[in-house]
Amino acid sequence: MRWGVLLAALVALPFLAGEYYINLTSQIFIFAIFAASINLLLGYGGLPTLGHSAYMGLAAYISALAALKLGWPHWAAAPAALLGTVLVAGAFGLIALRATGLGFLMLTLALSQVLWGTAYRWVSMTDGDNGLRGLSRPFQIDGATPFYFFALAVTVFSLWMMARYVGSPLGAALKGTRDQARRMSALGHDVWLIRWVTFVYAAFWGAVSGLLFVYYHKYIHPISLSLQSSAEGLLAVIAGGSGTLAGPLVGAAIVMLLKNWASAYIERWNMLLGFVFVFIVVFMPEGVVPGVKRLWLRFRSRA
Amino acid sequence: MRIANLTHGALFMLGAYLGVSILKRVPDLWLAAALAGAAVAVFGFFLERFILRKLGGNVLGQVLVTLGVSFIIADLCLIVWGGDPIPIPTPGWLQQPLRLFGLVFPAYRLAVVVIAVIAAVGLYVLIERTRLGAMIRAGVDDMDMARAVGIPVSRLFTTVFCLGAALAGAGGVIGGPIMSAYPGLDADMLPLALIVVILGGVGSLLGAFVGAFITGFVYTFGVALLPDLAYVILFLPMILVIAFRPRGLFGKFAA
Amino acid sequence: MRLGLMTVKTGPLASGGIDMERALIQYLKEKNYALAGRKVELFVGDSGGVPAQSRTKTQELVERDRIQVMIGPLDTASALATDDYIRSQQLLTLSVAAAEDMTQRKPNPWFTRGTSTSSQCSMPLADYCAKTLKMKRMVVIADDIAYGHEMCAGFMRVFEDNGGKVVQRMFPPLTVPDYGTYLAQLKTNVDGIFLGFAGSNGFRFLRQMNEYGLIKKVTPVGGMTALDEAVLRNMGDEALGIVTSCWYSADIENAINKRFVANFRADWSYDPGFYAAATYTEAAVLDATLQQLKGKVEDKAAFMKAVRSIKVDTCRGPVQFDQYGNVVGNIYIRKVVRKFGRLVNEVIHTYPNVSQFWTYKPDEFLKNPVYSRDFPPYKNLES
To answer: Which parts of chain C are beta strand (E)?
Structure first.
């Protein structure tokens, strides 16, 4: 019921708000998919990943390079980007899943830094610090509103697919490995395989967000593969509430709004971002969504 | 202590900036380093006592909070000291290069190496050979039993955290003549620290020492031989070691 | 009239970005916030040095604040990221960033640049090194970014065309904390080393060069951002005597600059450098263009035509623009001396009317690929 209301509001937005807000919301959609894909690993799998921007950036770069160097049209470049990213993610997953916790975090970071460094230094391919530009959007959706609806459709589909995964038996097993890995193993589940499949699935949706990103900006630069980008995604998930479906969306909106909108009014928005996250973790450690739910229930029970 | 602390780079940077200001009143580098270390330790005290303690065991929460705090520190430094890089002068008697065996070595860097060795040995003796160190190790291995035996674990942890913060802060000043204080210093230092710890193995001082050597050597030589792979080479030793040995070289527990 | 400033106020590029804002506000204050009879409203955007953010902020300035002219952005990557948006929106842009191709092979008709391309200042310096300083063998070192590659390529080309040889080149990563590895590899049987660093890297490299005892052996010369006034004020005697080239120096002796420097110093207690002078110059260009159009900024095509036809006296000397929108003006060779109790970049030589093509013919210049790590090829490297 609540989702329906939200969807209706989002569909109505372009008819009510100016171009700037439409574009801002499109960006929130892109970031929301990214955050939700991190959440699969972090919230439902208990695996903190600090290198997820690698998949977003890699898909964006493959799409851009296919168009610029090979002249491929979008209906060929997009699957190539998704496939390439998934293959790399499969390989990375083999390495990263040798550890858990902080070790896993560092390995995902290290692997994404390797990709970042490659994007930076392989100048003949990627033009390094200049980034790649002169790109186009599929179906010529150059206007703010057409792109908005495209992004909305992709976002709804992506989130639905991720929700289906979490709700499936595999998703239940995943949550099991998060909470009680040893017990799951004793019960005969292949914990490693469950995690690896999730890793690749999460990377796939990260790649989808990467494609939307490069379509929106029509430009890609190595900084999109950086630690900074991964950290922002991680922050969005934890702020909104890991382990819930709505959490990453709320978190993505919070981070995007702070970055783009608050920064116009508050000069020290970087610090504000820091304070917001410290506040959320200390007072609402489960994230904004569960935290608000908790406060709401408490409020209701008093009434 | 098994705390995922991503603020450490920012503490280093804070120490460096504080050192800049302290040096204006107190022109001695070593004294400034000690004072800056003390100041950062105080900051570390508040961080551990009031924020990190609530998050014991919650790795993700620790990561996020410490990341958030590092943003705050970075922005504070930008406000107070501005965006330009500020050099820290090398002590006069160490400014001349040393000529040994026909090669030239900057004297100050050799001094830093000596200090690092002293600090490492000092820490090792503290943790492994003193009663205090034994209590700390007991608290890490089994918090409840240690408490049951009367060890004030919480207070000890706070002390250790403050010590770590003090070392970071003093390190910022001591590294100052080489690195200077500039925005972004925290982001440059933190990955190095994390790589060394994970590579060497969490919970092992020897591991940190060895890890630092390996990382330093591989990076420096790698950059000279294969400059195009500079970023890759920094992470390569860690990736290789963890892939084959998830505990790191000397780790007591998987990170 | 609504004016936008696209700059960087947070992150590593912040100090230059903040200077950009300060100098622009100073100019507007001097004119009482009115140019050519029109009241000016200023909107400032902060990109944090991230290109995608720069693009988003530019969109915000255009779509939400409805700016008509944009000064900036600061860094090359942001300019490239915003290139297509500027084209599609026909946003009148007076840039600080040096992205060469935007006024060369892929010229953007709405884009002009009053500062310099990356190599516009390094090419005259190479000429000076070869002819006046009589250097024969040199090393080039710069940050491993397009800006660094372009500067070194231009330098190498002119130096070798004048009989010199570049025998070594090094491109350390932009954020390397320690240049020890590079200093250890530096050849010492050379006359000089060209520093193509940006931000604080130049000054850090020089300090470390000093520590390794190399400054006396290999004479450093610097590109336009290596020893900028912003960095110079934190340096000591190790900087004395170093020659650099730039399109600006706080030491330039013209009336406009003297007033600019005096007022800037009075407000902020330091000399304006590259970034402050950039926006002060662009503001003067904007002012002159608007005067010619009698304030009508709405006619975009007319604006672009006017900008390419004016000649303005600014703090950096006289400027005009070539047909691609890039500035043609003086390039100054400067030497660091101690004056008035502080370090300044004293002007020792002026190359007048330097364009982005130096002494090469534009058509031939543009037939070659853009300056990069690999073009022109370094033919004289010794291992």
So the answer is: 2-7, 34-35, 38-39, 41-46, 69-71, 92-95, 111-113, 137-142, 165-170, 192-196, 219-222, 243-246, 311-314, 317-321, 327-339, 342-354
Q: How many CB atoms lie within 10 A of CB A74?
A: 18
- Which residues does C201 contact at the CB level (< 8 Å), separation at least 6? C143, C174
Residue C376: cis peptide before it, omega within 30 degrees of 0: yes
- Using an 8 Å Cβ cutoff, are C329 and C247 in contact? yes
Q: How many CA atoms lie within 13 A of C271 on its CB side?
A: 25
What 3-state class would DSSP assign to C112?
strand
Q: Is B218 on the interface with C (CB under 8 A)?
A: no
Cα torsion through C114, C116, C120, C122, rounded to 10: 140
DSSP A80-106: HHHHHHHHHHHHHHHHHTTS-HHHHHH
Residue C245 pairs in a beta bridge with C333
Q: Are C307 and C321 in contact (CB under 8 A)?
A: yes
Strand order in the sheet with C92-95: C41-46, C2-7, C69-71, C92-95, C111-113
- Does the beta carbon of B75 lie under 8 angstroms from any beta carbon of chain A? yes
Q: What is the pTM of this model?
A: 0.81
How many A/C residue pairs have CB atoms within 8 Å?
A: 77
Write out pLDDT tens, residues B80-128: 887 777 888 888 777 777 777 777 778 888 888 899 889 989 988 988 8
pLDDT of residue A19: 82
Q: Give the gyration radius of chain A's Cα atoms.
A: 19
Taking CA C329 as the corner, what is the angle to CA C327 and CA C330, rounded to the nearest 5 degrees?
Answer: 145
Nearest residue, CB atoms, C203 vs list B85, B104, B184: B85
Q: Which residues pair with A133 in a beta bridge?
A: A219
DSSP-derived 3-state class of residue A65: helix
Nearest Cα to Cα of residue B1 among B98, B150, B136, B93 = B136
The pLDDT, as a whole number, for residue A127 is 77
Closest residue of chain C to B75, computed from CA coordinates: C10
DSSP designation for C61: I
- Give pLDDT tens digits for C145-196: 778 888 999 999 999 999 999 999 998 877 777 788 888 889 889 999 999 9
**Which residue ranges in chain A fall short of pLDDT 50?**
none
Residues of A in CB contact (< 8 Å) with C are 18-20, 23, 27, 120-121, 123-124, 127-131, 133-134, 142, 213, 217-219, 221, 223-224, 228, 259-260, 263-264, 267, 269-270
pLDDT, position A212: 94
Whether the CB-CB separation of A22 and A145 falls below 8 Å is answered with yes
Chain A residues with beta carbon closer than 8 angstroms to that of C145: 128-129
Q: Which of A120, A124, A270 sits opposite C10 (nearest CB)?
A: A270
Chain A / chain B CB contacts < 8 angstroms = 127
Contacts of B90 in chain C (CB under 8 A): 211
Q: Which residues of chain A have a CB within 8 Å of the CB of C10? A: 269-270
pLDDT category of residue C332 using cuts at 50, 70 and 90: very high
Q: Measure the CA–CA gap between C199 and C329, rounded to whole angstroms.
A: 23
Please report the pLDDT score of residue A143 as a whole number: 82
Q: Among A114, A179, A263, A273, which would you mutate to test the B interface (most chain B Cβ atoms within 10 Å of its Cβ)?
A: A114
